[in-house]
Amino acid sequence: MENIMTTLKELKKLIFSLKIRRKKSERNNTTTTIHLHGSNGFYIGLKLIFWRKRRRVFSFISAISGCLLLLLFSSVYFPPPTANNLFLPRHSSVRHVVNVREALEYNFEAMFQVPASGGNLGRDLWSWSQSTFYYGCSNASKTFQTANRKKLPDRYLLIATSGGLNQQRTGIIDAVVAAYILNATLVIPRLDQQSYWKDTSCFAEIFDVNWFISYLSRDVEIIKELPPKGGKAWIPRTIRVPRKCDPTCYETRVLPVLNRTQAVELTKFDYRLSNRLDTELQKLRCRVNYHALRFTDPILKMGKLLVERMKMKAKYFIALHLRFEPDMLAFSGCYYGGGDKERAELGAIRKRWKTLHASNPEKVRRNGKCPLTPEEVGLMLRALGFGSDVHIYVASGDVYGGEESLAPLKGLFPNFHSKQTIATKEELAQFSSFSGRMAALDYIVCDETDVFVANNNGNMARMLAGRRRYFGHKPTIRPNARKLYKLFLDRNNMTWEEFSSRVRTYQIGFMGEPNEMKPGKGEFHENPDSCLCQARGIETIEEKNRKDAVEMSDEYQSIEDPDWIDVDYLYKIEEVMSD
């Protein structure tokens, strides 16, 4: 640009110089000027001037032409910096993105054409050939002490869970194990009704409480409410144990208080039990999670109806947990190109989380800790072989950017559904005012789908990944966000064939195949290895593929903290979002 400005200045000087010299020529060549009169004389004089100054005039014309060609070349082949991430939604600057895309239309079409078909990859997209050789196994061994032999009288453990449905689910599971460790009777856990979701549902309105008590009766005695003491209601002593507290920690911190007061309530109970326990306690976790925790009949009935309607639309379908809501983006500290408006909106929400440090959006996204944009998810799925005819069920709250953000994904996959589009308002009326019950409906569909896609490694994603492993290793796709981020930045410099090939390579170890993760790696609810059994004599994956898969999965685990969600951040967000 500086070179262009310099050239223009020189042209201006040249024009001024030509004018001055013409005037001098008119004064000094009066004899010639007398004979140059009328139209013919003017023509001859003009011709004479051009002949004398022909070299400078030609230079002037050449310079102008060169500038125009340079501007045209730079507009086509050198897009402005804001065009580097065309697949990221711009929200407030969407018109600018559209204009940039139009300017780059020729180059884009020549280099990166997204096909409507997923192509023939020579493999089954909807199941794993080796998955039938694995099964869930969580029965207690003969050495496991039952409740009637282990429980001590007059010891009651109460639990106050926190967070959303799936975060509370982790607390309920660990509460049963904690009661077993403490030889205590468990009172049905109290659900969180104060956090962002403001869901007033109690345990019995989401889970089948009678089934829960009955199924676990051999493991832990469970009652619905704390009995009166001396004919009067009594208030238990409240304690908050540290994160990942192991059995010794419970015996040291909680048991003395429980012996003295007879009733203890553990508050904000999420991830308060160690991830690593002995096999018998891990199997107890699995019995609670995969068998005892069953949704109420109305939720199960509606959830199965949603699955049936999706199956009526297509033999196979994908369920996508998009997780592109404002709270998720703000917590992660990510930036998606929405300018000052996006920074102000998400920044205001992020201030509510006092424990969070100032974020470096570029570093966070580079490390793979940001959800993919809806369009990036669509491109990943197309590269993995899913064509535009595939039906997608989207489990999500209010997506940041609304329809503007979803439009590219819908363009890639027009058969786009949610519980609101396949069920009537009347059918959803009994659930729609309760975020936990609505989340339960999504949970059922995502569990029953042929392929589940998790766009982050949050509570619901981990819970469903583990459940789908336990019940037959159904395909569960987790984006390798660290590798895909770099690929999305560079996609306009490669063909679609090269792009899709790299996506498939990067996703090895992130597809839900057997043996993707080493035993003991990751959060137990995501990788319940103590509860997964394999048929004898079956070689499931070639050694090289197994090694590659495990190494890739380890990389994924190293960039995700199982305890990344702390309930403190969820309080009072609603006030900011309503402003």
Automatic annotation (TrEMBL):
Pfam (any one): O-FucT
Classification via InterPro entries: FucosylTrfase_pln, GDP-Fuc_O-FucTrfase
Keywords from the named record: Carbohydrate metabolism, Fucose metabolism, Glycosyltransferase, Membrane, Transferase, Transmembrane, Transmembrane helix
Keyword Disulfide bond: no
Entry GO MF terms: glycosyltransferase activity
GO BP, sorted A to Z: fucose metabolic process
Transmembrane region(s): 57-78
Family: Belongs to the glycosyltransferase GT106 family.
Name the record gives this protein: O-fucosyltransferase family protein
Species in which this protein is naturally found: Gossypium tomentosum (Hawaiian cotton)
